[in-house]
Amino acid sequence: MLPQLFNPGLGRLIGAGLLACSIVTLGACSQSEDPAGQKQLEERSGEQSPEQLSGTTAEKSSKAEKAAPESGVDYHSFANTNDYRVKHLDLDLTADFDNKILKGTAILDIKRVGEKNPPLILDTRELDIKAVRAGLGDDLKPVKFSLGETDPNLGTPLEIELPKGANKVAIDYQTSPGASGVQWLEPEQTAGKKHPFLFTQAQAIHARSFIPLQDSPQVRMTYAATIRTPDDLLAVMSANNDPETEKDGVYEFEMPQPIPSYLIAIGIGNLEFKPMGERTGVYAEPELLDAAAAEFEDTEDMLEVTEENYGPYRWDRYDLLILPPSFPFGGMENPRLSFITPTVIAGDKSLVALIAHELAHSWSGNLVTNSSWRDLWLNEGFTTYLTNRIMQFVYGDERYKMEMALGYDDLQADLADRPDKDEILAIDMRGRDPDEVFSNIPYEKGSLFLYELEQKVGRENFDQFLMDYFNKFAFQSVNTEDFVNYLDDTLLKQYPDKLSKERINEWIFEPGIPEGAPHPQSDAFTKLDPIREQWLNGEIEAGDIDTEGWTFHQWKYFLDGMPEKLSDDQLQELDETFSLTDSKNNEIAFSWLMIAVRNDYEPANARLEDFLTSIGRNKFLRPLYGNMVESGKQEEAKRIFEKAKSGYHPLTVKVNSKIIYGD
Ligand SMILES: CC/C=C\C/C=C\C[C@@H](O)/C=C/C=C/C=C\[C@@H](O)CCCC(=O)O
Ligand SMILES: [Zn+2]
């Protein structure tokens, strides 16, 4: 039998569905004919289409190398960061739940870094800009501004004429109800069903949909914020949340460490706090608070082992915010306060690698940051490597091996699915929407590359290397070339007989996995292969399989290793013996539903519909909808998607409607 993984709080959430919230059609933003904006756009998105980047492997990789943006250039931002840099943001926003808008003022402290005095160009998306003032210090006067042409991926540049010597710009604005980085939830979509909820998700290029700024990970700023909410709701941010704060509708925050814009985050809801350790705690709706605190109680241990091995935690507190199930990701590493899907509260800590992952970003990603989305692997590959190590420190070798092996299988699956050009770590993303290119490749291939380095130079030496890397580049944004140069100066010099530049380039600039790369495996998994085989061959019945003590990881491995096609009898036997359709572990349910969809297993249809309408996590939705379309169930996919869509996050709607309806 399946282990009993049911969690009452989550059960209520899942059962409730996600209806009643309507995603309002994106409103038009006032625009002017603006040649400057158009030029920015051409410079950023037009040089080479992805198709132009195809060719032989050698050509491809050399073109990928050339795609390294010049210093100060980010193909996913209009901002003229070679002229000005935003250093600090002061935000004062009111959350208007009735109209689904954030309204207020952003004051940017800017530093001129170029020789000239051109207009300041900021990123925006669907923002209604009411007025702009600029000047020196607090002497701000109204200035001219214009919105340029809108690019479907990048949004709309905001051009501001600055008086000479200006170092401050104040922008009065409001967001659109359909802002791509904000989800407004109706009470029905929450655990408590009585209060609305709001959360933002800025990565990769959605901060611009709720704050006008230089929305590029090359730019780091400190921030202070006042967030005004209805009196009975609590606001939290990726900043200095005070666990003692009482609900009163006005909340002040400070983020004293410089962070990139994609890490600015706001959550508002009927939230309460529960401590888990000295520096760690959880914010959640009261209905979920105890379950979340119990599930994630090892967070403090994770924090301590990571510090011991990779250097100090530099962000003061580390708390978790548990979001409603429409959150489009497993977690988001917002500094000091990771945003977490409730779908990982399984009741048995089986899915807590996600917490290790978000915590690890406090070193890889938040401290040392990819300087453009081309270099995402520097954030995610390092973080995935650290995640595995944290899981080993806290839960031991067997868990480590299983997590690694599952990651390797995820990588294989994505490699089988993607064009060569998207298998390159330093990926060419020009002209593309980062949300649509997103895959496991930067995570798992990046991590496997680091694992190979570890194997070659020895674990202790590699840990030292990582600690030094985090210290050297702390609070800086780096690109692939910075990392390669650092490798040149360190490990390549220290271990010339063990490492080579060619091999490193192959990992970073060539598609696929280099020949001879490590292949993480787990005995706890390989022993399941003959059992699965025997069952498939009819030599044993499902009831003969001794599943006592199987971990979630083993169930996932067992199910994911099933062949494409199973007979109706086989599906029924599996389901009746192991109650798979009713599994309360969302990862197991997902693996089973993937099998059910591709084999037209009707008894799982109701669960499939419930799953797709109650969870908004793209990791599950994209493959499930994709599988439905591929197996001829496009109409059913459309029906369910239309029913669920009003409760999905804007990003979820966008990427899945492409899958279901095509372009
Ligand atoms: C190769 C793609 C390059 C850049 C894309 C960057 C961001 C894309 C965007 O869609 C945002 C992603 C945010 C991810 C946040 C957390 C992930 O670690 C979650 C992974 C999936 C999950 O567990 O649900
Ligand atoms: Zn991550």
Automatic annotation (TrEMBL):
UniProt cross-references to InterPro entries, sorted A to Z: Aminopeptidase_N-like_N, Aminopeptidase_N-like_N_sf, ARM-type_fold, LTA4H_cat, M1_LTA-4_hydro/amino_C_sf, M1_LTA4H, Peptidase_M1, Peptidase_M1_C
SMART domains: Leuk-A4-hydro_C (SM01263)
Cofactor: Zn(2+)
Enzyme class: hydrolase
Catalysed reaction equations from the record: Release of an N-terminal amino acid, Xaa-|-Yaa- from a peptide, amide or arylamide. Xaa is preferably Ala, but may be most amino acids including Pro (slow action). When a terminal hydrophobic residue is followed by a prolyl residue, the two may be released as an intact Xaa-Pro dipeptide
Protein's recorded name: Aminopeptidase N
UniProt keyword terms in alphabetical order: Aminopeptidase, Cytoplasm, Hydrolase, Metal-binding, Metalloprotease, Protease, Zinc
Keyword match Zinc: yes
Enzyme Commission number(s) of this protein: 3.4.11.2
Classification of source organism: Bacteria, Pseudomonadati, Pseudomonadota, Gammaproteobacteria, Cellvibrionales
Keyword flag Cytoplasm: yes
Domain Peptidase M1 leukotriene A4 hydrolase/aminopeptidase C-terminal, residue spans: 522-660
Subcellular location: Cytoplasm
Polar residues bias: start-end ranges: 47-57
GO molecular function, one term: aminopeptidase activity
Chain segments carrying region Disordered: 33-74
Family stated for the protein in its record: Belongs to the peptidase M1 family.
